[in-house]
Structures are given as C-alpha cells and as structure tokens.
Known about the structure:
- The complex is a heterodimer.
- By secondary structure, chain A is mainly beta.
- Chain A has a single domain, classed as Quinoprotein alcohol dehydrogenase-like superfamily (Methanol Dehydrogenase, Chain A), CATH 2.140.10.
- Helices cover about 5% and strands about 35% of the residues of chain A.
- In chain A, strands 1-32-33-34-35 form a 5-stranded mixed sheet, with no helix packed on it. A 4-stranded antiparallel sheet of chain A has the order 2-38-37-36, with no helix packed on it. In chain A, strands 3-4-5-6 form a 4-stranded antiparallel sheet, with no helix packed on it.
- By secondary structure, chain B is α+β, with helices and mostly antiparallel strands.
- In chain B, strand 1 and strand 2 form a beta hairpin.
- Chain B is globular, with a radius of gyration of 24 Å.
Amino acid sequence: MKLLVSIALLILILSFSASGMAQVTYQRILHAEQEPENWLTYSGTYDGHRYSRLDQINRGNVRNLKLKWVFQMRTLEKVETTPLVVDGVMYLTEPPSNAFALDPGTGRTYWSYVRNLPEVIKTCCGRVNRGLAILGERLYLGTVDAHLVALDSKTGSPVWDVAVADPKAGYSITVAPLAVKDKIIVGISGGEFGIRGFLDAYDAETGKRAWRFYTVPGPGEPGHETWEGDSWKTGGAPTWLTGSFDPELNLIYWGTGNPAPDFNGKTRAGDNLYSDSVVVLDADTGKLKWYFQFTPHDVMDWDAAQIPVLLDAPFQGRPRKLLLWPNRNGFYYVFDRETGELLLAQQFGKQTWTDGLDSQGRPNVLPDVLPSEEGTLVFPGIQGAINWHSTSYNPLTGLLYLPVREVPTLNFTGDVSFSPGDMFLGSRWQAMPEEPSSAAIRAMVPQTGEVKWEYPLYRDTWGGLLSTAGNLVFSGTLEGQLFALDSATGEELWHINTGGRVNAAPITYLHEGKQLVTMAAGNALFTFGLE
Amino acid sequence: MRTRWIAGFIVACAALSLWAQQEEGRNPYTSAEDVAAGADLFGKRCALCHGADGSGGTGPDLRRGQFRHGGSDAGLFRSIRFGISDSGMPRLGMPDERVWQVVAHVRSLSRSAKEIDVPGNAVQGKQLYLGKGDCSRCHTINGVGGRLGPDLSDIGWLRSTRHLKSSIIDPDQDIDRRYLSLHILKKDGQAIQGVPLNEDSYSIQLMDLQENLHSLWKRDLDEIRQEERSWMPSYQGTFSESEVDDLVSFLYSLRRKTDQP
C-alpha cells in the first residue's frame, strides 16, 4: 500500500515537474490552496485571501532572506503586476501591456509578448497592468487599448485577440482577468473618461463574448432611475480590480468604481447605481443576484475597487458565508454573501464626511464636506482609507490584514462639460502634505472590526499584502522597502530597501522544492529565498 | 519692396502649409524628386529585408499597401522613424525629411491585388499543410498546432512569397536564429534537443522537442551545441512544384485579424 502511494506520488510529481506540462484546469484553480507551490490566480485563490500554506520561510528564519534575482522591466510606468506561477514557470505582465514567461530559478525569460499599441491611449493613472489569468494552456491578458488577448503559455503566441471596447472613447483594461469554469471574466477601466462601465465574460476557447453586465443600467433596467437625464451614458462605474468567486453559490463578487464625472454630481442627480458598489453576479449568465452601494452619489472618487474577501466563519455564534469589505470611504462592511444581508458596518479609518450609517448601511453625508469652489478638506482623501491594494486573510490567526491610509485631500468642484475620450473629472483635487496624516498595516478581527495590532508606516502605502502559514505578513512601502511582519503581533522581522516605490502585492511559491517570495518594486520584480 | 513683401508672404504660406500638413500627419514630401530620393534610401537601408522592389523577404511585402502598424502617412513615418519594437524592424536614424521621402517611395510601391501575382491554390495548399506536409506538427495557426517552429498565423503579413517558397524547399538557407537546432548534454548524461529561447553567461533556456520548457545552469552541462540548421526538413521532393505554389499561396493568405468593438 505504502509503495502504491509512493508510486502515485512520484507520478504526480513527475507530471508537474516538466515545466508547463500540466494543464491548469478549472478544478486546479478551484482547489488552488492545495497546491501552494503554485500561484494560479490573481489573489492566489478564488476567495481573495492572498494567503499561502507555505511555511519554509517563517518568523524564525525570515531574517535570513536573500535576494535570488531581479527582473528589470523596460518601463517607467508603475509596476502593479501580480505574477502567476504554474508548474515551474512564472508568468507576468510588464506595463503597458506586455507579458513574459520566466524561470523562477534564474529570473531569465522563456518568451515575451510585446504589444504594439496605438499612439494615443487614454488612462487616468498610468499605462499599467495588474496581471494575467491562466486556464488550460492559455494565458489571458487585458491591454490598455481595451483588448483581451489569449496567449499560448509555452510560446507567448496570441491565440485570439478580441476588442472589448473602444480605446479612443477612454476605455482601457488594466485588471488581471479571472478564469471561472470555461469563461474569462474581465473588467474595464475609464471611470475618469465618462465611459459606461461593464463587466464581461468571454468563452476561454474562442474569445466569443458570453455575457456583459452593464454597471450603469440602461433605459428600462432597474437602477436606471438613479441617473438624471442622459447622465447614465457617461456614468463611469468601471470594474478595474479583479473580483472573487464562490463556486458553491456560483456567484462572482466584483467591485465597481466611481461615477463620472468624479467630483461634480450636479448633472447626475440620484444614487448613480451601480457605481461604488459590490455587484454579485451569476457566473454563468452575468445576471445580478444582489448588490450593495457603499457610497451613493459619490463625489469623492471612492471606487469600491477592493478585493472581495470571502470567508466561511461563525458570525455572532452562527456559521455564515461572509463577504468582508474594507472600503475606500473609510468604512468596513461585513455581509452574508448569499443573501446580501448587511451584518456589520463600522469605521476603520479616519473620516470626516459622515456622522454615521443607518441600519441599511446608507451614510448620512454632512452638509459641509462636499467639493467646493474654494476647496473642501476631507478625510479620507480621494485615494480613500484603503485603495485597491490587496488585503490578506490568514486562517491560522483568524485575522484580516489591511493597508490603511488616513490622508486628506482638498476637493474642488468645477466644469462638467463632456467630450468623448477626454478626461471627465468635473474638477480637481489637491494633496495637503502639511495636514497631519498617517498610514499603517492593521490586523483586524473580521467579525468585529477590532484591531489586534498596527504597524505604522511613514507614508501612505501603495503595496498590497500577503500572509503565510509561516506566521508572516509581507508588503512594501512607498519609499521602496519590502518587509515581513509577525502575523500574530505585527513585529517587524525583516526589511530591505529596493530603492523603488512598491505598487503591487507579493506572492509566494516553491521552486525546486524551495519557497520563494516575489514582489514588484520600482520598475523591477524582486525574488527572495532562504539560501 | 513690394516684391520682397510678396515673396515673404509666399514663403510664410508655404511654411504654414507644410506645418499644417505635418500636423495632420500628411507627407509634405511627395514630389517625383522626393520619391526618387526615397527609392535611393530604400535601396540602401530597407531592401535587405523588404526586397529591392518592396516585394518582401524576411520583412513584409510592401506592395499591398496595407500596413498593420498604421497605414496613414503618419503611421508609416512612425514605423520607419522609430522602428517597431520586438519585430525586427529597426529605427531609421535620419532627418525627418529623409524619412518622409522613404514614406513617399513606399507609397509608390503599392500595387493592386491583381498586379501581385501569387501562383497556386490556397485551398489545396491548406489541405497539403494539414495532410501530406503535416506542418501543424510543428507550426501553429491561430492557436492550433505545434510549437517548435514559428507561429504562422500572421506569416502572410510578414514574409514574401519568394521567402516562403525558399523556406519550404531549403529551410536552412535563411533561419531565424530562434529556431536553430540545439543539442545539450548534461553532466548527468541526459541529452536534450530543442530550440533555444534565451541564454546568458550562466544559464540557457530552451524548448525541447516534446515542447517542454527547460532552464539549465551551464555549470551542470557538458556540452551546448547549436547547429546552423533548422529542425524543419526540406520539402523538396515531397511536394511537386505546383504543390509548393499551393502551399505558398495558403501561407501568403494567413493574416490575423482582430475584432473591432
């Protein structure tokens, strides 16, 4: 019997050891937590935990981490990519819309896909990309000219290339797609250009569009009445950060961005559904199951572009299927993710715009906090109490780790004239460096919002988090340090200066049996290991 | 005085007109002399890849008048002036006027589809590709096929009929170095054959003949041998002359399209 098991194990190991031999089936992504040697989807697993079972690197030895290699990118854009690692090969994107396969042992490339882009690309915040999806032997790449491209994972050759939307009208793709069953789910960017947002699903095999969910409802659809006149046509509500998936409920959870124009709501009276919301969609049809709008009629640019964290855990003594959502508006929300029932909503970061939420989670907006001609100072500023950077849930500590920013901005109202393809902000904002501000990594009890520890940062961070079974939390700073904290106490155990701002989240995986940690900083990707 | 004023006005108008054309991206240098000057430059700098008559070689056939990286004057100017990244097309480091003259010459090369004679039958060529030639064992078209040879999904854009024909009959004559045959002997005795993907002083990356990716430290290797030949066999003798034409016709028809929204 023991021999049989050994042989079976050997066959399993052999079948995955030849680089790129195995197909990444939907079943493998579904159980991604069981193969921590790989990193199969943007957040590591469908539930958005960005947690790894690997513990070779742990709080006892993390101080011995050594640089293994650096992959320099040919770009001056921000590097926001989360690489994938599959059966000994790493796949990553380089801004604006390029892709690479490389060997995690040497950092040397196997192939590259370099996209030729039109001269004019409309992006609000850099020609960036956050990563790839993989399914079967294909990688899926969204491009800043608003195409979705399927690439052969062994050669980087394009298999198909479909136009998702018109880049001249301000549409672009920066999100890492999500592979669910036989479909590729991809969101759109362009909330600063007056696009009409949507979330799309494409047949992974053919590239044919399977469904589209408009995040701004058209005439006759529920929610359309929340837009004044024709304002829905330029309503924004993009879908630029990868969502999560619950296979049992067959539901996709996806955050939507700001309504357009960002800072002036006078031409779009109403709640402006489904901007700044979580939309919960049937994975097969794209039909809306439920939604929750965090910031109705937003004029502060508070995109609900956060990673939806799905957690099965007791809540007030009862086992529940929870959805956790620290939002850019400064409040932390817990839902029953099956019914949409709001279970908890409470402040987690400094805010000055509301005196509280009602029992349905609707904020009472204070009268003097709206953008004005002379400028209005508000906490959180337009970058939010949290932005898009990945949180991490660690089942060993039962804690949710999140990067928190308590930084105000001065917000102005202004012109709301619309011209297709031009920025449609409705005004401007201003950073206020002289105002007191703070930033930290916090560990929170997900059911209560209670903060267990805090790791203060010198300035607001743009790095995402990773936690591991080695009792560690990894992240990085605006100034360029990568660091590891004790997941139970927040004690700093290791840091290194990379010399470049961190704009991405770390991953961890095994290469030839040894645990590595990879993270982007500056214009490069850094990989660390123990020897 | 008056004459000088008028002359000045004319010069100013001409300058304005030139500026306006450049602003719109239209070629301001299109006279017969410009085309001739462009032809001279083309012969010296472009003909090696695109053929003296523009019918292509390792570079695309320019006579079709269709250009994937922008077919407007400004698009052509951009491709020639700045090159096309990772495509093999280098930048032409010359003053703008000279680049525009090359654009004028490239425009003059355009021929109608009728004038570009491609012998052979593409439908039969496809059958030969999939059947007798078994080409899809090593080549991919739109995601279907093998990976050891170049992806052919776009080969009709990239190569001339002449180059396609010679690649079928004598594949070793002009090999893209990414497809040289590579032989590796590891210190543990294992032999690996394949095609090179990447190399530095310390390591080498390759795809083996079973399409597995390998990254190897050179310290673990006894031998790295790269032969100046392709894994692709010659099809001279396998195909008749008319069958080669059919196959070339099929390959020349392969041009990837992308959807528009």
